Amino acid sequence: MIFDDFAKAQSFFLWATFAIAFVMGAVANKTNFCTMGAVSDWVNMGDTGRMRAWLLAIAVAVLGMVLLESKGLVNADASFPPYRANQLIWAENLLGGILFGIGMTLASGCGNKTLVRIGGGNIKSIMVLVIVGLIAYYMVNPFPNSDKTLFTVLFYDWIRPLAVNLSTHQDLGAVISGGEGAMKTRMIVGGLLALGLIAFAFKSAEFRSNFDNILGGVVIGLAVLAAWYVTSNVAVTVDGEQHTLQDYVQQWDFLAPSPDGKPEDSRSLAPQSFTFINPMGQTFGYIKSGFDHGILTFGVMAVGGVIVGSLVWALLSRRFRIEWFASWKDFFNHFIGAVLMGFGGVLAMGCTIGQAITGVSTLAIGSFVAFFGIVLGSALTMKVQYYKMVYEDDATLFKSLVTGLVDLKLLPKKMRQLDEV
User: Fold this and answer.
1) In a domain, 140, yes or no
2) What is the arithmetic mean of pLDDT over 40-68?
3) Residue among 172, 175, 88, 83 at smallest CA distance from 359
4) Does some domain include residue 263?
5) What whole-number percentage of the chain has pLDDT above 70?
6) How far apart (Å, rounded) are the C-alpha atoms in residues 325 and 361?
7) Contact residues for 240 (Cβ-Cβ < 8 A; gap 6+)
8) pLDDT(421) > 80
């Protein structure tokens, strides 16, 4: 994917992203691939079908990633966001993951599912997208006439000092090997992890017989891989020398024939794959700018691609349905959920796709921490909702929360506050 003109290369970069996201949106709608639904099925019904589909997607992404990296086709060390950064922001990953898990449960879906639901006619999810986009944008961009962001005002001073600075990249391969031989260790660790997840997924006869769950897991995992591959291999030649898009923009004054067409930020041209919370903020910024092409990014195209892909499938399958809030309580839950998703998704540096699949595919420790936080936050929220529904006034938030932790085997049985139902 070598071009002799930056504009052509960037156009391919963006439209290839849209095409991959289109497939992701269509398949997610068709198969009902939903990470929040996966947690809900597991917690509320003991059904692990969609959870296994999620784990299969992770396995496909991890296995493909170690193979691509071993061939020099992807450089995850230079990714955007920097999953393998030497600074392990574990507290942000954990807190952000928990907030995001709570939020996606209240808002009826993660970032990707929100976009899929919009494509299917769900107007509630449009509100979620707007709120998430607004918060995500100002978490990383300063307020008007200020140098402060939501992150610096609310979080930076107390949570960033908890970060741990490592001597190597934070992925399991680098940490285990001490930096030397990291690629070989990644292949071993990634291969074993992927094979273990695949074995677990297909151990279930029910899962093996469910075509949609298998299709959803495989295609979502491959979509993540396809994005990694495309964003790592589009290049521009200048005087016989190849430059990545990011490198070209960083040397724009020396390489470009004119100042016109320069993207605002070179980071958005780094190797990357799908995540949806920060891109919702990027989409807000793109619209706010009056659709300035200089800030049209991978993330914006990914958001649009998933929505359009889902819409096309919904129309073709005649599953397009307009859905509105059932009550003021439903509205309030989606509003609070969207707020928590906006804050949590940026803090955690990703969502159930961005961290649990894309991030985990790099074997980054922070991604595993965020993944754990998301599942914990979502599962506990469902437990609290369940016990408050069954016991009504007798189930205080504290009693429901402690009992939920006991159910999840995170606290001893003797601490149970409410009888098991």
Assistant:
1) yes
2) 96
3) 83
4) yes
5) 100
6) 36
7) none
8) no
Residue 94, SS3?
Answer: helix
Chain Cα centroid distance, residue 61: 13
Burial of 9 (0-12, 13-18, 19+ CB in 10 A): buried
Q: Checking phi first, is residue 290 left (phi over 0); if not, alpha (psi -120 to 50) or beta? A: left
In a domain, 421, yes or no: no
Range of the domain at 203: 2-415
Amino acid at 139: M
Element (H, E) at 117: helix 111-119
Q: How far apart are CA 330 and CA 89, in angstroms?
A: 34
- Strand, coil or helix: 241: strand
Tokens of 411: 């606290």
The string of pLDDT tens digits covering residues 263-301 is: 999 999 999 999 999 999 999 999 999 999 999 999 999
Q: Tokens in use for 48?
A: 């692990």
Any idea which residue has 């009902």 for tokens? 32
| 284/185 Cα distance (integer angstroms) | 40
pLDDT digits (tens, 9 = 90+) for 346-377: 999 999 999 999 999 999 999 999 999 999 99
Distances (CA, A) of 244 to 67, 220, 233, 301, 419: 21, 26, 8, 19, 60
Residue keyed to tokens 């796709």: 353
| Structural domain count, the chain | 1
Q: What is the largest distance, in Å, between two alpha-carbon atoms of the chain?
A: 75
243: part of which helix (H) or strand (E)? Answer: strand 241-244
Within a domain: 420: no
d(CA 411, CA 414): 8
Based on the number of CB atoms within 10 Å of its own CB, is 129 exposed (0-12), middle (13-18) or buried (19 or more)? buried
* C-alpha–C-alpha distance, residues 338 and 117, integer Å: 14
pTM for the full predicted model: 0.95
Q: Give the residue carrying structure tokens 């999810």.
A: 125
User: Which residues on neighbouring strands pair with residue 50, listed in sequence order?
Assistant: none
